[in-house]
Design brief:
Layout (H helix, E strand, L loop, with lengths): L23 E9 L6 E6 L4 E7 L4 E9 L3 E6 L5 E5 L5 E4 L4 E3 L2 H13 L1 H11 L3 H6 L1 H25 L10 H8 L2 H9 L7 H17 L1 H4 L10 E3 L5 E3 L9 E7 L4 H17 L4 E7 L4 H10 L5 E3 L9 H5 L6 E5 L5 E4 L4 H11 L1
Parallel strand pairs: 1-7, 11-12, 12-13
Antiparallel strand pairs: 1-4, 2-3, 2-5, 5-6, 7-8, 9-10, 11-14, 14-15
Helix pairs in contact: 2-4, 4-5, 5-7, 9-12
Length: 364
């Protein structure tokens, strides 16, 4: 299991096991690997520490012992970053480290297939980048940046899909970091409130805490805008007419400035939520302005129509060189800011339930 380092900041947090994992359960792991003489590690994903290790002999290795019930474990080979995850559910597992395949309980077999599938885009991208020289990297920096963003978008979309389709199993836990990165740490409270099967699993809280730390450290310059007056932006709408954000701010209006792009999967996935909020609160004084990071006008205009967004849309069609990027320190989308009637930014990166809850407090 490989997390994108650009997205996930690993901060080793040892979280006390909750009741659902207090009971110890025996595990049995058998595996094969062509790396003769190499070490194989059995990892605890909660502590991110090896709980056992052994040297491959005759192309085989094995582990047995006791770990908390439903603990998220993984097998990793020496010198490799890829890990094969599985839950300690009492069913023995057999792992082929060469291709990361696993035989075990139906849940663990599904988890392994999902893990491999979700990382197909990133593995291809990083393999491509690893073969490039420094000169080639610099020459294709903008192209690679856009490609990397698409990889991130695909993995986040996959995580959201898993949380929807596997909500009644433990599998979403393995994708929780990406899920919280996209849906906000507020999504943790929603999962607990819904009492999903993994709500009390300590790894869920760990994932939430890690993303909170990531947003705190890497996103602090962004969050500094909260409580400050907004910075105006002027760009053209699809017809070429110039508009400013300040046209809608004031006069009792609450304005959500939504930073998005037609090629951004998570942006498109979030639009039904924004549209729902717009329909609920527009008559009460809620406005939305879409600021696109597109470069190609036809794709931008087509997406506006496809997603049925009735609010004002503006763009300078400069992609990541969009004027909004330096004005609000935007290095990833979707992103947004919520501006009160006095022009003060009162929220940022409000998505999913977080946006709905915020607007509910304001208008209801």
């Amino acid at each position: 299991m490989k997390y994108m380092k650009k997205v996930i900041l690993i901060a080793a947090l040892v979280v006390a096991a909750m009741p659902s994992m207090a009971q110890g359960l025996k595990y049995s792991v058998n595996g094969t690997y062509t790396g003769e003489g190499k070490k194989i590690y059995l990892m605890d994903q909660l502590t991110e520490k090896a709980i056992d290790s052994m040297v491959v002999a005759g192309g085989k290795f094995s582990f047995s012992g006791t770990a908390p019930k439903d603990a998220l474990l993984a097998v990793r080979a020496e010198g490799k970053t890829w890990q094969t995850p599985f839950f300690n559910d009492g069913t023995p597992v057999a792992i082929n480290v060469n291709d990361s395949t696993l035989t075990g309980s139906p849940m663990n077999e599904r988890l392994t297939r999902y893990d491999i599938e979700s990382n197909i885009p990133s593995r291809a991208f990083y393999e491509k980048v690893s073969k490039m020289t420094e000169e080639q990297l610099q020459a294709h920096l903008e192209e690679l940046s856009e490609e990397n963003n698409k990889v991130m978008t695909a993995q986040i979309a996959f995580a959201n899909k898993i949380f929807k389709e596997e909500r009644h199993s433990l599998i979403p836990l393995a994708f929780a970091q990406l899920y919280f990165f996209d849906n906000g740490i507020e999504a943790y409270d929603e999962l607990v409130k819904e009492q999903v099967p993994f709500a009390s699993h300590p790894y869920l809280k760990k994932a939430k805490d890690e993303i909170a730390e990531l947003l705190k450290q890497n996103g602090s310059p962004k969050m500094d805008y909260v409580g400050q007056q907004f910075t105006d932006l002027e760009m053209a709408d699809p017809e070429g007419k110039m508009h400013k954000i300040s046209e809608l701010v004031g006069s009792g209006k609450w304005v959500l400035v939504d930073f998005w792009a037609s090629w951004c999967g998570p942006c498109r996935a979030e639009m039904p939520n924004v549209l729902d909020a717009y329909n609920k609160y527009h008559d009460k004084g809620f406005e939305v302005i879409g600021v696109s990071f597109d470069e190609k006008k036809p794709a931008w205009v087509r997406a506006i129509s496809q997603l049925q967004m009735p609010w004002l849309q503006i763009s300078d069609l400069k992609g990541w060189n969009c004027a909004a990027a330096p004005a609000y320190k935007i290095d990833a989308i979707p992103d947004n800011i919520l501006i009160d009637p006095q022009g003060k930014i009162i929220g940022r990166a409000l998505r999913g339930k977080a946006l709905q809850n915020c607007l509910q407090k304001i208008f209801e």
